[in-house]
Write a structure and sequence with these properties.
This protein is mainly alpha-helical. The protein has a single domain (about 5-165), classed as YP_001051499.1 domain like (YP_001051499.1 fold like, Up-down Bundle). About 80% of the residues lie in helices and about 0% in strands.
Amino acid sequence: MNWTEYREQLTKNVDGLSSRQKLKFAIEVCEKLFPDYKTFQDESKWGNTNLIADGLAACNQSANGLDTDEKSVQILIAGIEKITPDTEDFGEVSGSLALNSAAAVCEALSFILDNKTKRISDIGGLSYDSAYFKACEDYPKLSESEIKNHQNLQNEIKWQLEKTN
């Protein structure tokens, strides 16, 4: 399955989910990406995994039906944006993976505020991108076409589509 087919199917699947199911999927993706942020922080000595974890906790709180204060969510988003690495400052792959991890949490928190379904599909896209970056790093001699068809990316697509179906 190519990127366009994947993205269309993911969007279709996500559209059929309830708001709670959408947020649960987003949380699963964020939890899957969280170790990438931790690795980046350990390597670069920059960032704040505690703030990312606080963002995830707020998402879980909302997914479990507990009220989340809008102002607190906005403060978390602003804080996470400040500790999201800029790839111009952190050019290695771990910086891109950490950016995707932090961006996914920001998107999930933003979904709590505005309930925009596109955010959930975008979170899936961030996870796909992370799988792509890892495949490029792990298999540097493969062509772009071979990377896109690599089992790691196909497994990522399958996982997301199963989780949202």
